[in-house]
Design brief:
Distance between the termini: 16 Å
Number of helices: 7
Number of strands: 11
């Protein structure tokens, strides 16, 4: 069982879950998918129609191959054109941290073609904002992170992503983000750096290909679960929400 109790850092979970779906929404919303906001007739597409158009734009065999390999990836690099600035942007992200299926942490580096770069960590709420966040590669020196914004379910923390940090990631084994909970206890979130170098230096996957692979994984999950009735779906949603609440309470202990 994974833990977020003081001095027992959370460990890696598969790239998946609700956080993965949210990440895809960010990719589409930020314009990192193909330029497909309209169909050939000029009619504006709904988000569902645009998603389907993106999926149909990639090679199904390539999407299947990526879906098959994602469980083994510690880090993944995804690149696409941000249509708002008409530049290629790459997102290098670690596996999400999960406890009993609940996503509690994420880490990603966003890099533009002009060389600008930043790193953000996604952490749970109910952390002490004035105290800030610390990041550390293995037993090296600590760096400071700044809370940028908090949403009902998570907070975004930004770190400077200079060349020294990137080099330390390439040479290190683990990057730990530590914050204080409401009780004043340190809560560490540990991300493996295994596979970071190959992901960061590699060409990266096209965002459309990743979206198609994620769709395949969702379809596989549905097929494994079998047919779900509306009543079962409501019960499942309530159970998931209760589990998420319990996990958030545990972080505060």
């Amino acid at each position: 069982m994974l833990s977020l109790f003081p001095h027992r850092p959370a460990t890696r979970a598969n790239i998946g879950g609700l956080g993965r779906v949210a990440a895809l929404a960010v990719l589409i919303g930020a314009g990192l998918g193909p330029a497909a906001a309209q169909d050939q007739s000029g009619e504006v597409l709904t988000p569902e129609q645009r998603l389907q158009q993106i999926i149909e734009s990639v090679d199904p065999a390539e999407a299947e191959a990526l879906a098959d390999s994602m469980a083994d990836l510690q880090w993944m690099k995804v690149c696409g054109v941000d249509q708002r600035i008409n530049q290629t942007v790459c997102n290098i992200r670690a596996r999400e941290l999960q406890i009993e299926g609940v996503t509690v942490g994420g880490l990603q580096i966003i890099e533009g073609e002009a060389g600008e770069r930043r790193m953000v960590a996604i952490l749970p709420t109910r952390l002490q904002l004035p105290e800030g966040v610390r990041g550390q590669v293995d037993d090296g020196g600590q760096i400071s992170g700044t809370f940028r914004i908090c949403y009902p379910q998570n907070c975004v923390v930004e770190f400077e992503a200079n060349d020294a940090l990137i080099n330390s990631f390439k040479a290190g084994g683990e990057f730990t983000v530590t914050a204080l909970n409401e009780a004043g206890r340190a809560v560490p979130f540990a991300f493996s750096l295994s596979g970071f170098t190959s992901a960061y230096d590699g060409e990266g996957y096209e965002s459309a290909l990743l979206i198609a692979a994620e769709q395949i994984l969702r379809q596989r999950a549905v097929a494994q679960q079998g047919e779900v009735t509306v009543e079962d779906s409501d019960d499942l949603q309530q159970a998931l929400e209760q589990r998420a609440r319990e996990v958030r309470e545990r972080i505060q202990e």
